[in-house]
Amino acid sequence: MVAEPSETDETIANLLHEQRRFPPEASFAAQANATSSDYEEAAGDRLAFWARQADRLDWSQKWSEVLDWSNPPFAKWFVGGRLNAAYNCLDRHVAAGRGEKVAYYFEGEVGDTRTITYAQLTRMVCQAANTLTRLGVMPGDRVAIYMPMIPETVVAMLACARIGAPHTVVFGGFSADALRTRIHDCDARIVITSDGAYRRGKATGLKSAVDEALLDCPDVRNVLVVRRTGQEIDWTPGRDIWWHESVELASTEHNAEAFDAEHPLYVMYTSGTTGKPKGILHTTGGYLTGCAYTHWAVFDLKAESDIFWTAADIGWVTGHSYIVYGPLANGATSVLYEGTPDTPHQGRWWEIIDKYNVSILYCAPTAIRTFMKWGAGIPAKYSLRSLRLIGSVGEPINPAAYMWYRENIGHGQTPVVDTWWQTETGAIMISPLPGVTAGKPGAAMRPLPGVAADVVNDAGTPVENGSGGYLVLTEPWPSMLRTIWGDNDRYVDTYWSRFPGLYFAGDGAKKDDDGDIWLLGRVDDVMNVAGHRLSTTEIESALVAHPKVAEAAVVGALDETTGQAIVAFVILRTEAGDGGPEVVQELREHVAKEIGKIARPRQIMVVAELPKTRSGKIMRRLLKDVAQDRPIGDVTTLADSSVMDLIKAGMPGGA
Length: 655
Ligand code: WTA
Hints:
This protein is an alpha/beta fold. A seven-stranded mixed sheet has the order 5-4-17-16-18-19-20, sandwiched between helices. The longest helix has 17 residues, at 118-134. The protein is globular. The chain binds 5'-O-[(S)-ethoxy(hydroxy)phosphoryl]adenosine.
């Protein structure tokens, strides 16, 4: 009955004709955390609503004002309030007698497991906090974290939070170059890493990439190294310190100092429309409030009984908010899984769900589409009956994937929450409320209580129901980014200039006849590849940095599994020859090395010319047509319209 995964523009067309609705089951609604009156209540007095949500946290000093928006777009939330994020995630649960509750069930890819309680996690974080302090880390100093998905990554983050040192977690799949740029940009002085990581059954190196990155980071004083794989690594005496010879020997007592609500909590780099990644700054009180509330409301979290699993990497914002800060602030039990979904077999996720009785699963559509490809027979071998709610994040979920997810994973019963948000928003903004909303496959539905979103046209005017435009957020929210690290102008330009007074998200969206919101993908030069944000410009810069490349243009072509795939068009320098398969392979590897494997183009096409307007702007739209093998659109603005014929002729199967 379930349709094949269909992609392409058809999906978008289908999406808008999708009529099915799944009203909440009465039994679910009866026990749900959220109620329909939350919307009206929040709309009545938004700031009072958020103040009530901030009361989910322990404040050592209460705020005097909920929001200071006197200097927009620079927000201050919970003005004058003081708190410690790690205390809120740890100590207070222990103090309340919940120290023996499990914080994480860790499942290593190679099959090793660890069960870590709140009391244990608190002690580990205190040890790491003491170690960082001993290494001279002061409140406000930045610490870079480049780690696999292991408990020490959470410990490292919370230790930073505990001493007020903003962390910047760099996804372990990024290259040494990418790590170096981020260390430079936020001027980190300490790096926390591990010898290596397990990935598809193999030990891969992380410390080696840190060593390479640090060749050009003279200000980094120390590298704290967790032993994960036991592989051989190079060692720089004086600089490198083993975690087990420092952190694990340190005192388990540490008094958490309270910081201002607006004290920086972390910087997370994300791709923008230029080549340079943006350091998104989140602060303490508002961010934690947003994570705690949304984790409770959107996932219907019952801290006493749920087993929650966000199957994402901690190196992305989804991991920050829904593996670390939201679940821990709420005292929940989570699963932390190190590896890939098909190691050692394609049923690994479902095996984990049955093993730990996971009740809430949160993952990306790209994973769901991969499972669809592997076949429904695989999850069918498992019970999955413990699941009572499933969620999706990171890209538009096409109705076919939504239906497959609901039928095959959610046994045709569980609510599915399609959650829209961004690194910049810190927490979920648009999503069905389980137990309240009648879900529509493919729609993120409505802004959460306390969140104000709309879809506007080019002039910034809200569109009518039934029409599309740009997604904007119309009021500030507690977990909003505060700025781009070190670049207030870029913050204002990127998000607040396109439509004055409105936050421009960079996504296209449509309001259906009921006014519910459907996300349609990015409207800028940002691609979404398997749920990872990458900028076309960033990859173009990497390509042109190669001595054989004269010019490059990159587009995101629709892809059945990964949503978008990277397709590059390059013009080679004359001396590079005509570009055989070896050159193409060399260039793909070059991009992987410069940025990371996730940025390796699926395809590189060597061309003689690129389509440009008379003003010299590359028309990516036309290249996208070629990459997707569909009829070429309007070429009248091209400086030389025969270019497209040339490019088409050069393609496999071209005329
Ligand atoms: C996309 C990930 C459609 C969107 C949390 C956004 C989505 C970008 C959804 C942010 C969704 C995220 N439906 N699109 N439910 N969730 N996106 O910063 O384009 O890695 O702008 O944050 O992912 O990606 P980021």
